[in-house]
Input
Amino acid sequence: MKFTFMCKGDGKGGRGRVAVVGGGPAGLAATGYLVCQEYEVDVFDKLPFAGGMMMFAIPPYRVPKESIIEGVEDLEKNYGAKFNYRTKVFCGSEVRHDEGDEYVEKSLDLTKIIQEYEATLLTTGIWLSRKLGVPGDDARNVYSALEYLYSWSVYDLGLSTHKPPVGERVVVVGGGYSAIDAAETALVKGAKEVYLTYRRTIKEAPAGEYEVRRIMSEGVRWVELVQPTKVIVENGRVTGVEFVKMKLGEPDESGRPRPIPIPGSEHVIEANIVLAAVGEVPTPPLDIVCDGIKADPKRRTIIVNNRMQTGVENVFAAGDLITGASMIGKAVGSGLRAAAFIDSFLRSRRVV
Ligand SMILES: Cc1cc2nc3c(=O)[nH]c(=O)nc-3n(C[C@H](O)[C@H](O)[C@H](O)COP(=O)(O)OP(=O)(O)OC[C@H]3O[C@@H](n4cnc5c(N)ncnc54)[C@H](O)[C@@H]3O)c2cc1C
Output
């Protein structure tokens, strides 16, 4: 996978200044598009480098870090994009803490950025993990998949000297990409036994049957139709997870068969590390409302119209931030579409 850009622009800007908040695949794709259209682009990201989940969550054997570094260098050196790292953007002075905030050195007020630039694009993704929601889920050695993968990424990139725990027996809960990556990483890093547990069957796993079978062939044990009921903690340490068996019922609101617990089928899988991969939620740079920019109070996604414009006409949003958990390709497409709308918005302003 390559993240380099080819365009006619000389990177000198001249057609206006655009701020991109969030340097993941959506923000990077938009930056590439906009510098090619001769805009001056400043990217703001809370992390020490761009790439978002590709750089700091997805393991390197799936998305090689070198290609991301190459693409970002290309944007900087050849097209004049400016990357402002370790900078958290938030509306107002009470900045919310999200996952991945450890490297933040300064915070900037979103309203000031909006005033300073002709257009602003928000692409801050989904940097908050859902909890298991069962007793014991806040015990030591229970981590979110994002927290675990992020810790390994910063350690492997040499940004932290704190080696994350390996664990003898690791239980992962979930069936999406985060679950697959967490289970595979645990195995690669030296865990002796890794269980990937999911409440439906392999056919319904969001990561797809192929991915599940692939990591099974590497040694991960797949346990389907189970749901955790509690994390067992003894003397402050995790010793296992109690599960109840499930059966599938009629389709639920997601269209997939509803998993129904089978009473009396409780059983324990021993573990000394538990990884919760039960989803991440959007982390907009605001709490529900910031001037005219609004997030859906339930889903936390930023609300945009069909031109990807928020309630403030020169502020746009893209990527996982408007859809919830998605995929790299979709985030890239979303960033490109938003950039095209920004371009036509700024062009139309000049004509008038
Ligand atoms: C563990 C995991 C594994 C995945 N595996 C795959 C896979 O194999 N294949 C696939 O296609 N997809 C995968 N995905 C999904 C994919 O990574 C995302 O859909 C994609 O990265 C979304 O891109 P984005 O630009 O919207 O957000 P992100 O990639 O999350 O980028 C958002 C950026 O915004 C920055 N940011 C956040 N808040 C602020 C703030 N307030 N101020 C400044 N900066 C901020 C973050 O530091 C980050 O750099 C995976 C996701 C996860 C979590």
In short: The radius of gyration is 21 Å.
